[in-house]
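Annotated sample (chain length 320).
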Amino acid sequence: MRSKNLLVPWIAMLLGCHASAPASPAGVAEEGQFAGDGAKLFYRVVGRGPDVLVMIHGGPGMDSGYMVPDFAPLAERHRLVFYDQRGAGRSELLRDDPALFTMARHVADLDALRAHFGLGRMTLVAHSFGPAIAASYAIAHPDRVARMIFLGPVPPRAGDFEKRYGATLEGRLTPEERAEMARLEDAMVHGPDPVAACRAYWAIGVKPRVDRPELASRVTGDFCSAGGDAIRAGMSVAGPHTSESLGDWDFRPGLAAVKAPTLVIHGESDAIPIDLVEEWTAAMPAAKLVKVPGASHFPYVERPDLVWPAIESFLQATRP
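Output written by the structure step:
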């Protein structure tokens, strides 16, 4: 989840062809592209097991690279399908047109992924901004969602979320760190080396998103692996337009019809206010919230001892 003041405005197969990638701890990754809603989208499949879990990364304007290594424990028992959302990462970079980045387009992309892999009903695992896409999909296609897991989710409505989230993040940084992050944000779009700027940005940016500074080293995913062009496009086009398309969002009216069992996992010290996150469970009839002590925005690496057993228990109990 990005902050308006700390990154872009939040309000922050080749068809039929597969290419192999380096081996992961849970098996060899399969990579390729599928045809989304007028755009080619990159995917990566990692892991083994009978269950297919569709992974939805945060952002907007980021890519799945930061998730893959840190979800290796989940890949030990399940097959994880990651994809890069439209206009960013290793997916096709699109022109600067707000009409290409509406939530309806993101929903159509996710349904195209479902069809590409021949999935009837999907299990969606979404982090940070990702639950906004997952919830929008479940509202549009409730019969195509078996169950969902939200980790560190944005709340189901805008409310005063942006103001509170940004203030909390900024309060966890020194004035010097805030100034440097603003400089690096600009350098990612306008500077000669977006990758270097991105790495320097996240070297600071992980700090206010973990419960304690020493936990930052546990976040091993790469936020900047997609390359300079993708970073620029995500920062200046995909991220802002996707955020703006949501406006003063409120998913709650549509969530009453979402019957899929949903597990919401949220770190107690996350800058995303937990009282707003609790509204997911009030809005969805089959949702429950697990509050994780000693964790912030990356609870799966901050408290793996609590998070992975909770997820496995949920998946076993809700197996279709």
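Annotation: The two ends are 30 Å apart (CA to CA).
Annotation: Confidence is low (pLDDT under 50) at residues 2-26.
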